[in-house]
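pls design
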């Protein structure tokens, strides 16, 4: 009995620790990899620039990750400048058209792009509130996003005050389904749209802090 308790205790605590430690290590690894890659690429060009502008001694000072971080920030900024003008947009569309013909690469790229768009400000404005809805049957609760009030023929034939709810999929919240639910059957949540998206993307591993009162439906 004691052995069984110890086994469950060790397993549960280990899994709990793993869920916290693993994302941290993955994050650190990716950051070090990206910064290190940029550092290797731009080490020699930056040294040459320092010599040209009259600061050759700067090439002897080295802070790990700083050059990679600065390079990443500058490149990201200039890429943003390029893709926001007309020529840049056309170039991106042409490149995406080429990528769409390579199934594996396109799948990874397109999924990443959709996730980033869903976390952007423009994506958040599409949702009004996070709600719980009993779906796909009574007794099973699903996180959904209130998008708008049902109107027109749908509202007329249901004879109830209904709303449109977007039910996202895990881990990609940009795909999902639309369901139409009576307003009275929804449970409003006080978590932000961003917190709701994070909970869905993580499969429930990231849980937003509890607020004392749920907000009324907006």
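designed seq:
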């Amino acid at each position: 009995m004691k052995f069984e308790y110890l086994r469950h205790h060790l397993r549960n605590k280990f899994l709990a620790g793993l869920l916290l430690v693993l994302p941290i290590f993955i994050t650190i690894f990716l950051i070090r990899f990206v910064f290190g890659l940029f550092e290797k690429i731009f080490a020699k060009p930056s040294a040459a620039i320092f010599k040209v502008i009259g600061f050759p001694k700067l090439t002897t000072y080295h802070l790990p990750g700083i050059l990679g971080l600065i390079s990443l920030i500058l490149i990201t900024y200039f890429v943003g400048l390029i893709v926001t003008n007309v020529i840049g947009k056309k170039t991106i569309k042409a490149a995406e058209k080429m990528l769409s013909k390579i199934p594996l690469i396109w799948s990874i790229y397109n999924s990443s792009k959709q996730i980033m768009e869903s976390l952007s400000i423009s994506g958040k404005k599409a949702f009004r509130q996070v709600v719980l809805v009993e779906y796909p049957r009574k007794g099973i609760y699903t996180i959904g996003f209130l998008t708008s009030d049902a109107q027109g023929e749908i509202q007329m034939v249901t004879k109830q005050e209904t709303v449109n709810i977007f039910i996202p999929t895990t881990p990609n919240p940009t795909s999902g389904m639309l369901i139409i639910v009576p307003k009275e059957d929804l449970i409003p949540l006080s978590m932000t749209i961003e917190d709701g998206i994070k909970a869905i993307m993580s499969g429930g591993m990231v849980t937003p802090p509890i607020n004392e009162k749920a907000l009324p439906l907006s």
